[in-house]
UniProtKB/TrEMBL annotation:
Molecular function terms from GO: aminopeptidase activity; metalloexopeptidase activity
GO cellular component term of the entry, any: cytoplasm
Domain Peptidase M24: 3-67
Organism classification: Eukaryota, Metazoa, Ecdysozoa, Arthropoda, Hexapoda
InterPro entries linked: Creatinase/aminopeptidase-like, Met_Aminopeptidase_Type2, Pept_M24
Keyword Nuclease: no
Alphabetical GO biological process terms: proteolysis
Record's protein name: Peptidase M24 domain-containing protein
Residues forming coiled coils: none
Pfam family membership, one: Peptidase_M24
Organism: Zophobas morio
């Protein structure tokens, strides 16, 4: 699951060309499974692997000039 979050954050950084306070990632990417509705962020070393029947919710956001884009 950590790979999903890392790929999402890498894509955001690439697309907005992270620029300090002008643009960047608004909050850590959330990647919640099954019964967890939201706000779970796997940490490096988390052994959780996405399974075939899992439901995965990915939550990420950016900010540009102080405005959150969710």
């Amino acid at each position: 699951m950590i790979e999903i979050c890392e790929r999402a954050e890498h894509a955001v950084r690439t697309l907005i060309k992270e620029n300090g306070l002008k643009a960047g990632i608004a909050f850590p990417t959330g990647c919640s499974l099954n019964h967890v509705a939201a706000h779970y962020t796997p940490n490096r070393g988390d052994p959780t692997v996405l399974q075939y029947d899992d439901v995965c919710k990915v939550d990420f956001g950016t900010h540009v000039n102080g405005v959150l884009i969710l």
